[in-house]
What does this fold into?
Amino acid sequence: MELVFVYGTLKRGFSNHGILENSKYLGTTETVLHSFMMYPLFGSFPGVTICLVDGFAIMGELYEVDSQTLNELDKLENNGKFYTRRLVSVYRKPGETVKAWMYLLPYNDKIIENNIVYRLDRYVYTNSSLNTQEWFKD
It folds into this structure.
């Protein structure tokens, strides 16, 4: 079994959650490091990149998945071509961190430059006091 941290359309209530519906939901959490930036792409799904300056923690959900589900996620996310699956630290519960897989976009990806929706606040909720970002529905 593997831990996977999801932040967009794979979350409960979103369009791609069906892939995870038979996986063990471990709760809502966030990344430990505040070194990410979330972008709304095509107005319908987020992309997260590593951001070393002025970054945010990303809010999402943590799941325990089997190898078949991880393979399905890799296909959906076009692992290695569009997103890249990387291990990141997330909170399992207050004071406890674990490593989980997260799908990230390359920082200089032209897809971001060409397809970002500039009304960021319409899709990405940024909580400045907590320095977090979260994807939400209209």
